[in-house]
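If your schedule permits, I should be very grateful for your opinion on a structural question. The matter concerns a single protein, recorded as an amino acid sequence and a row of backbone structure tokens. Could you please explain, in whatever detail you think fit, how the structure tokens follow from the sequence? I set the record out below, with my sincere thanks for your time.

——
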Amino acid sequence: MALELGASSVSLERTPGGRRLVVRRDVAASADIVWDILTDTDCWPDWGPSVTAVETDGRYITEGTTGRVRVAGAVWLPFEVTACAPYRWTWDVARLPATGHFVTERTDGSVVGFEIPPLAAGYAPVCARACRRIAALARDA
């Protein structure tokens, strides 16, 4: 069963990372455009409601990328990208497994989504807002 959260939906699903809440939204842009937005650290503060800055050696992430993100405008947390292959990436933040990010290609665009542990259900509205921002960035790209 899926719950609607604005134009995003939330459902409990089995993912490569285990059982997760999945927040997703249709995007009127190709999967390549959305993937570029998701993996470009310069874009993270534009779409991530909790991310205000990123420091890393490379602009685009790959598996093993490390750095730090500033959240809530004040706290810097270390991160490591634990998996990154077209069209899905995961990371640890402060050495804890965090959200998974994915894009699914469709004939009329794509779907962007986030995978979050069920115990972090309160984070679903934040992910829905991120989906909305990504859709807008992709539309303008």
